[in-house]
Amino acid sequence: MTDLSRPTLPGSLPDKRQVAASFSRAAASYDSVAALQRAVGISLLEQLPGDLAPQRWLDLGSGTGHFSRVLDERFDQACGVALDIAEGMLHHARNRRGGARYHVAGDAERLPLRAACVDLVFSSLAVQWCDQLAAVLDEAQRVLRPGGVLAFSSLCVGTLDELRASWQAVDGLVHVNRFRRFEDYQRLCAASGLQTLVLRREAQVLYYPDVRSLTHELKALGAHNLNPGRPAGLTGRARMLGLMQAYEAFRQPQGLPATYQVVYGVLRKPQA
Fold it and tell me: Which end of the chain is more exposed for a tag (fewer CB within 10 A), N or C?
């Protein structure tokens, strides 16, 4: 890994440690409930430029390594690097056949990689956990070779609004993760120095028979509420019953909807 490495900058924010711990705990259960994550990642792959033939790719926020294995199959002559802030996820990925050659614990806002070392940065449903998207874009530009591509999917405002509104009706506290506005993605990508090939949002709606099925899935993904201001301790029975009753107002023939506002971005680093 010495040809890729540079010194890691110290000092992760406390909430990042909580994110890392949450996803590490979810490593064993993640793949069993990741249908949306699979669909979004496949859609992102389909939006890559047709002429892209990387010699080295980076799976940024690689999780259990599912898309590292997909990238390894698609670009079978390339060398792959999987990077995640959750070491439990990396450990899980290392024990699976195929995928990235290197597994690196690191922060997307402070990549422990040298400049101009990869041709593709692929990141599916990871950068929504990063506080400073501008730093992620700067780091992607730094590690990409000229002509290289950053492809990311993320989440924006409007995600899980049904769950958010239902909790607001119960106690007004923060129970649902916050996401940045789509307009912020537009502004930051435009200012990044990267050429925007694709930047769009698309609503994906999942349906559940009941509220507990949704909340259990979020916990199995490691994507339950990690925001400052969230209520401490266990959710009481009365509040949970209130949530169930409030969410019923959204019920449709298919079940209880959970809307995800997915952002797709494909950006290219200009040629030198």
Answer: C
